[in-house]
Amino acid sequence: MFDFAGVIKSVGEVFSSLFDYFKTVKENQSETEVIQDKHDMEKACRYAENAISIVEKSAFFFKKKDKFRFGYFVKKFRKFK
Questions:
Q1: What is the spatial distance between Cα 20 and Cα 17, in angstroms, rounded to a whole number?
Q2: What is the pLDDT of residues 13-25, one digit of tens each?
Q3: I need a surface site. Which of 1, 9, 50, 65 has the fewest CB within 10 A?
Q4: What is the DSSP letter of 63?
Q5: What is the pTM for the complete model shown?
């Protein structure tokens, strides 16, 4: 015969493990978001570094003040990246 009690117990265990999984995901959600934000910031820094490198090669500044300000900001960016 068909074992209904065993089937019901198995289905209950499946749902129990599924709910445990969702609970664990929810508990780790903030950590996952922080890690994802860190990866996004690293990617943004790489793109910014590439853009700065291109500008440094071919930029022409009409005023010395602008050239020094650009150099200052590049130095600060590279210090804190």
A1: 5
A2: 888 888 888 888 7
A3: 1
A4: S
A5: 0.57
